[in-house]
């Protein structure tokens, strides 16, 4: 209609006057037709102030601030005095787009024209200065105003409230009271905002009394703010009073009460309030659900077992309901849902949730992205975790640690190096979890050099005193057989947990240093730590290697006292230890008391009988085991085959080897094949051993070649011995025993040039023979003797005593065990 009227006026040559032009501009502006409004403005014959006011108001309405300001100054150039409405529109535009410089010019012109004393202009100037960040100039305008009504006070209060200057807000409110200015709704909202985070209950109650005095307690917005503030300050009873006094409660009131209980740590009550809210007919909004997620997450963090499981289910149910009601979840709510999927192991729901997060563009949120990576890692979806990780715009230490953990879990060691390179490039400082994962990856090569590099980095970051990380360091050094470094880490720790003691003892046990395990076990007790299941297992393993029966008796007593004898793992280890130490009666007694006799229990007992009573008795127990319905495993047969080998029963061993495959359907492992080769070699049947070797369906290992090399030396077979030596040293280049036996083989054949060449090569690659060690238990104490060490007075006397006993019994040292042939020659 506006365009039609405008076209008629132009067609009939009707002059557009000021009043008519003003009306047309307002009409076009109200419909967003700024182009037509500008056209009308250009066609007005003599634009008066009303026309300027209309066009400036049009540009203000449609947020065209730059053009508006140009029009304002063009009007000034035509010596027209801007109306109050023009000044207000221009100040409003400057406020919206933070045009502080132009706002100051208009303020200066307002002072010259006397308009700065106008209440509306003054409040607009105060608002403009405050929102443009110049609160001091806002205060200056306020101070020079001759008349200040509640609107002016509210504008200034709101300015200080936005600037979080709570002290000034409360001070201004006090001045208002003393100036007999009746506060309004906006006044109380600003003052209540000032109390946010301030626990001044006395002052707060005074404000509340004023709210009651002026009748604003019935206002839902103010009452909801009161509930929120009382709840946030921990005054839940006062919050309840206000809540119950409300004539018309709404979702905001309920949310304020629920969030207050969550902040106070009363998560269960918060969930009860949510349930009550729904029963009373109020539909929760996005904030209600967000609060519910926080409550579920907090409860899940505090509780365990079924309660945790149930709270995760509750959280997911809330999330599903949000989706059904088309309420878009924010990143905080989505984060809680992701954690619930992780806790429940709900991979399908997790993937659906991930899709929703991706669609709403939330995946790029660092915390949410990191938790998605963590969810996929924990649910063993490494490819999906990696896809999310590499899409993250900003990786942080949490996401990197989660991804490292996933790659370690997946045995993808090389990818761990990629993550570490990224962390170095992005200057992301690894935490204890990152370093633990990197150390586990570095230890897979069996070379301690990479672990040492990471250890240096850990020391630089002052994380070397972190107990969990120190335990990992000890463990990886032990796996790399670097017990010296492992013990250094143990020694420098200011505080050691029981786990630390267990880790170092397990490390020594795995590296066949039982003597050190017993020393540490004794030291641990003297420092007042009580051993646990892991401690006993490591110590029992040490007793096995040393044959320390007195220590076994002591540990057995401790196991009984701690009610661990019925534990299947500890019980099986006790059976194995007594059996290996030759105390078969005691092993059998523990075996009979076991509540659950599994294949491990039977195998330990059978191994003991095979070692000390021979293969035949061990076979009887094997068949008894079968009659009890327990299927033997490969390890069960290894001990019996070993017993046949030690007894020189080649035929019986060979028959049993065939029986193992045909009757028990056990596929032989390299250990079984090694037992057979050892059996042939011990019986002097080297040719049969060779035939058996060439018939093996699996590749030999170092043990295989060492057995054959030893037999080759016995029979002087230089060519085959050299072949075995090359195979053994290819698999393990630093095998000093292989060098020793091959040197003896050459020496027996008077091939001294080859002997010296081999010795030179051994020394070049530092293939040193470990010093020989022997242990003896006297009066419950284990004494260790190492070849070449300086003995103490006690150990020296003990050693002389043992040498005398050995000579009296006809023992003659075997010079063939000497490694350095130059000395022998």
From TrEMBL:
Extract the PANTHER family matched here: PENTATRICOPEPTIDE REPEAT-CONTAINING PROTEIN
The upper taxonomy is: Eukaryota, Viridiplantae, Streptophyta, Embryophyta, Tracheophyta
GO CC terms:
mitochondrion
Family in the record: Belongs to the PPR family. PCMP-E subfamily.
Q: Where are the PPR repeats?
A: 149-183, 219-249, 250-284, 396-430, 497-531, 567-597, 598-632, 669-699
- InterPro entries recorded: E_motif, PPR_At4g14850-like_plant, PPR_rpt, TPR-like_helical_dom_sf
> Which Pfam family, any one, appears in the UniProt record?
PPR_1
Q: Which NCBIfam families match?
A: PPR
Q: Name one GO molecular function term.
A: RNA binding
Q: Which GO terms describe its biological process?
A: RNA modification; system development
Organism, by scientific name, is: Ceratopteris richardii (Triangle waterfern)
What UniProt keywords apply to this chain's record, in alphabetical order?
Repeat
Name this protein carries in UniProt: Pentatricopeptide repeat-containing protein
Going by the entry's taxonomy, the superkingdom of the source organism is recorded as Eukaryota
């Amino acid at each position: 209609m506006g365009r039609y009227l405008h076209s008629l006026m132009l067609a009939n040559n009707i002059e557009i006057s000021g009043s008519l032009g003003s009306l047309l501009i307002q009409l076009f502006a109200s419909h967003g037709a700024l182009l037509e409004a500008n056209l009308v403005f250009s066609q007005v014959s003599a634009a008066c102030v009303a026309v300027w006011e209309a066009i400036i108001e049009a540009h203000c309405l449609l947020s065209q601030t730059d053009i508006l300001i140009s029009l304002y100054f063009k009007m000034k150039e035509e010596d027209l005095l801007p109306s109050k409405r023009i000044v207000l529109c221009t100040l409003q535009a400057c406020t919206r787009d933070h045009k502080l410089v132009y706002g100051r010019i208009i303020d200066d012109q307002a002072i010259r024209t006397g308009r700065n004393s106008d209440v509306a202009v003054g409040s607009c100037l105060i608002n403009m200065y405050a929102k443009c960040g110049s609160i001091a100039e806002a205060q200056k305008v306020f101070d020079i105003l001759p008349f200040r009504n509640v609107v002016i006070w509210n504008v200034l209060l709101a300015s200080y409230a936005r600037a979080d200057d709570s002290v000034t807000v409360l001070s201004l409110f006090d001045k208002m009271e003393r100036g007999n200015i009746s506060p309004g709704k906006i006044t109380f909202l600003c003052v209540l905002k000032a109390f946010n985070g301030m626990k001044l209950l006395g002052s707060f109650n005074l404000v509340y009394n004023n709210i009651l005095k002026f009748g604003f307690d019935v206002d839902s917005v103010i009452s909801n703010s009161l509930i929120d503030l009382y709840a946030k300050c921990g005054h839940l009873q006062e919050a309840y009073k206000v809540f119950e006094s409300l004539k018309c409660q709404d979702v905001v009131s309920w949310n304020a009460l629920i969030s207050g209980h969550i902040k106070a740590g009363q998560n269960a009550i918060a969930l009860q309030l949510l349930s009550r809210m729904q029963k009373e007919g109020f539909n929760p909004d996005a904030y209600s659900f967000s609060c519910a997620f926080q409550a579920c997450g907090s409860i899940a963090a505090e509780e365990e077992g079924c309660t945790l499981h149930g709270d995760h289910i509750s959280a997911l149910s809330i999330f599903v309901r949000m989706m059904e009601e088309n309420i878009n979840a924010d990143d905080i709510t989505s984060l809680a849902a992701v954690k619930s999927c992780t806790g429940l192991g709900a991979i399908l729901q997790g993937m659906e949730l991930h899709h929703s997060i991706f669609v709403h563009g939330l995946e790029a949120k660092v915390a949410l992205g990191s938790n998605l990576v963590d969810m996929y890692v924990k649910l063993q979806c490494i490819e999906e975790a990696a896809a999310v990780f590499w899409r993250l715009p900003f990786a942080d230490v949490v996401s990197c640690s989660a991804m490292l953990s996933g790659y370690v879990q997946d045995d993808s060691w090389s990818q761990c190096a990629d993550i570490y390179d990224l962390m170095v490039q992005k200057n992301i400082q690894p935490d204890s979890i990152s370093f633990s994962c990197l150390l586990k990856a570095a230890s897979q090569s069996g070379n301690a050099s990479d672990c040492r590099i990471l250890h240096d980095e850990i020391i630089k970051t002052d994380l070397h005193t972190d107990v969990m990380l120190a335990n990992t360091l000890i463990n990886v050094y032990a796996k790399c057989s670097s017990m010296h470094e492992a013990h250094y880490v143990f020694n420098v720790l200011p505080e050691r947990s029981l786990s630390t003691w267990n880790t170092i003892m397990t490390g020594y046990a795995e590296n066949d240093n039982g003597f050190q395990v017993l020393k540490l076990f004794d030291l641990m007790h003297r420092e007042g730590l009580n051993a646990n299941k892991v401690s006993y297992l490591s110590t029992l393993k040490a007793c096995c290697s040393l044959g320390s029966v007195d220590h076994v008796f002591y540990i057995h007593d401790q196991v009984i006292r701690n009610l661990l004898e019925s534990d299947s793992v500890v019980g099986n280890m006790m059976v194995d230890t007594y059996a290996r130490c030759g105390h078969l009666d005691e092993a059998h007694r523990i075996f009979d008391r076991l509540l659950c006799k599994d294949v491990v229990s039977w195998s330990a007992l059978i191994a003991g009988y095979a070692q000390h009573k021979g293969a035949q008795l061990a076979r009887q127990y094997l068949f008894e085991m079968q009659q009890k319905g327990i299927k033997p495993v490969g390890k069960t047969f290894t001990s019996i085959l070993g017993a046949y080998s030690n007894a020189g029963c080649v035929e019986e061993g060979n028959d049993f080897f065939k029986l193992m495959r045909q009757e028990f359907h056990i596929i032989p492992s390299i250990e079984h094949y090694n037992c057979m080769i050892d059996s042939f070699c011990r019986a002097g049947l080297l040719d049969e051993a060779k035939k058996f070797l060439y018939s093996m369906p699996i590749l030999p290992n170092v043990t295989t070649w060492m057995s054959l090399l030893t037999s080759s030396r016995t029979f002087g077979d230089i060519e085959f011995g050299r072949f075995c030596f090359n195979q053994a040293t290819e698999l393990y280049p630093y095998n000093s025993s292989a060098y020793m036996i091959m040197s003896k083989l050459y020496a027996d054949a008077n091939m001294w040039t080859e002997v010296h060449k081999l010795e030179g090569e051994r020394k070049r690659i530092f293939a040193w023979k470990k010093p020989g060690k022997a242990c003896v238990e006297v009066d419950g104490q284990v004494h260790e003797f190492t070849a070449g060490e300086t003995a103490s007075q006690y150990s020296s006397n003990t050693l002389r005593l043992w040498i005398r006993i050995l000579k009296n019994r006809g023992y003659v040292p075997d010079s063939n065990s000497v490694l350095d042939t130059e000395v022998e020659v």
